[in-house]
Write a structure and sequence with these properties.
- The protein has about 450 residues and is of the alpha+beta class.
- The chain has a seven-stranded mixed β-sheet with strand order 3-2-1-4-5-7-6, sandwiched between helices. It has a five-stranded antiparallel β-sheet with strand order 8-11-16-13-14, with no helix packed on it.
- Helix 4 links the parallel strand 2 and strand 3.
- The longest helix is centred in the middle third of the chain and has 20 residues.
- The radius of gyration is 24 Å and the shape is globular.
- The protein starts with 8 loop residues before the first helix and ends with a strand.
Length: about 450
Amino acid sequence: MNSESEESWYKRSGITDLAEFYRTKFVSDEVLDSHYFKALDRFDMRFARTMWVFDNVRSGSDVLDLGCGAGMLALLKRKEVTLYGIDLSDECARAAKTNGYDFTFTGELNRLPFEDHTFDYVVSLDVFGHIEFSDKDHVIAEIKRVLRPGGITLHGIECTNHNLRPPMNEMTDDELRRFVAVDGHVGLEEEQETAQRFQRFFKNVAFEPRYTLCLTSDEFIKQADEYGLPFDADLLEYLRGLSFRERRAFDIAMGYVFGKISELNIQLPKAGFYVLIKASDSKLGPFYNEHRDRTTLLQPATTYGASLDRRVDVKFDDGWYEPNVLPPVARWMSRKAKVSFQSQSIGGISFDLTTHIPDLRAKPLAVELTINGQLRHAISLYRYGWLNWRIGIPPSVVDDGKIEIEFSVNRTWQPRPSGNAEGGRDDREISIAVCNLEMMSDEL
């Protein structure tokens, strides 16, 4: 390993502006703000590592997210933590702040801009595989410095298997460039090597191989296509043919199994793929679910205003897709989508909508709005841009405070059914995007 730490693998692979490289890799318009998190996503494989951290962090604590990216740990705000983030990319740090982090910083992980003993937890997901070998110990030393006595550090770390994948110093320049270009990995070690690094700094270290069984549908394909992992050809063919909603169902199933493995404390074999690390100078509690409390994910908020977009008690059904920053923050829908909530006093609703559907002037998009089963309004969209729609809700329509609003349209489209030069695959069946959904006290 010493021979690999003598030179920068980023420079050898042609990456001269590391911050720009990570900005283009990891900044997106994804909305990770905890107010928008759907309870069902606790089972989504994409959030499996986030949920491991969520269930291990004490409510009300101070948490630092190393290499925060766009803010995958924003969900921790549901546990009233004070959440800090630091990233090499200024744009990533700004994205995390937008997604609800209390404080974000731009800087090097081996020179953290914090006083000694500042945090109860220091956490990272998918970061150590991007740290060059010569810097890893410096980063762990900084983690130890900023942790409070008894503090805990939690990490999800990409790994390798030396028997299956050649070390970087045996790759040709072309092989190295292709390898690093996929995810930016320049510091992959085996599970036990990673654990041994932490053991040099912390008295108590626990680690568990993960992702031996469960991957997202996209990750199965990427690992096969980009890294050459030998998955069954017919499985890969099947995964490539799944629609957006079928991939979503697959990822929910994978995430559910991932969570059950944790709950049942099932020991997985070494995989050379990924490892979870938990370390402290104090005695460690359970590796999984040490502070599990998901009530804030499942129970409605006790206070809220007129806005329905971010109320955790408002249900957006599966006709809606995850929120995106268009801007503003909005939800795309398919052909039909419902919003359900409770209100004892409501005069109407107000919202903004838009569409990107092609050929709008030639074929206007018909939009209907049904409230508690009664068709109340219908319009045709024939031009692009945001439209504000204000609709009265008479008391006769409201049933014991229960309100269900259904949007429906006459057609949908797929932005990028197979991917193109402008971006990756987007085969969602989408129609309109809706945002700024608010209750009005007076009926129109």
